């Protein structure tokens, strides 16, 4: 389980009921990261779930549950390090 919490303004029941809806926001369109809808989709695609707990004036906690892998996951191949590459004059159009 991964828990993400804050000590912000919290959410009332009506806001919590809509928290995972696409495009729903209480912060206008100035977003800082993926909304709960995006995180929810990724977690559900991997067989997990999210529990939302919040109270007005008390903050919010998202508990994220993802099932353990049945077998070890192989490491991804190392990416090439191109920090020493020569700059290019290529144009993308």
Q: What's the short version?
A:
With 93 residues, this protein is α+β, with helices and mostly antiparallel strands. The chain has a domain at 2-65: Heat Shock Protein 90 (2-Layer Sandwich).
Task: Provide structural commentary.
The model has no long low-confidence stretch (mean pLDDT 84). The radius of gyration is 19 Å and the shape is extended. It is 17% helix and 20% strand. The protein has a domain at 2-65: Heat Shock Protein 90. Strand 2 (49-55) and strand 3 form a beta hairpin. The longest helix is centred in the middle third of the chain and has 10 residues, at 36-45. With 93 residues, the protein is of the alpha+beta class.
Strand count, sense and barrel status of the largest sheet are: 3 strands, antiparallel
SS-based class: alpha+beta
- Name the beta content range: 15-25%
- CATH fourth-tier homologous superfamily of the domain at 2-65: Histidine kinase-like ATPase, C-terminal domain
Coarse shape: extended
Task: Work out the helicity level.
Answer: 10-25%
User: What's the average pLDDT?
Assistant: 84
Give the termini distance in whole angstroms: 45 Å
> What is the β-strand count?
3
CATH class (first level) name of the domain at 2-65: Alpha Beta
Give the count of helical stretches.
Answer: 2
* Level-2 CATH architecture of the domain at 2-65: 2-Layer Sandwich
Could you tell me the CATH topology label of the domain at 2-65. Heat Shock Protein 90
List low-confidence stretches. none
Radius of gyration: 19 Å
> Oligomeric state of the chains?
single chain
């Amino acid at each position: 389980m991964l828990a993400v919490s804050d000590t912000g303004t919290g959410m009332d029941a009506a806001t919590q009921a809509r928290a995972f809806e696409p495009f729903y926001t209480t912060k206008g369109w100035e977003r800082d990261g993926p909304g709960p809808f995006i995180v929810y989709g990724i977690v559900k695609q991997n067989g997990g779930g999210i529990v939302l707990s919040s109270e007005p004036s008390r903050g919010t906690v998202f508990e994220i549950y993802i099932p353990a892998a049945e077998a070890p996951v192989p490491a991804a191949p190392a990416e090439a390090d191109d920090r020493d590459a020569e700059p290019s004059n290529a144009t993308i159009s």
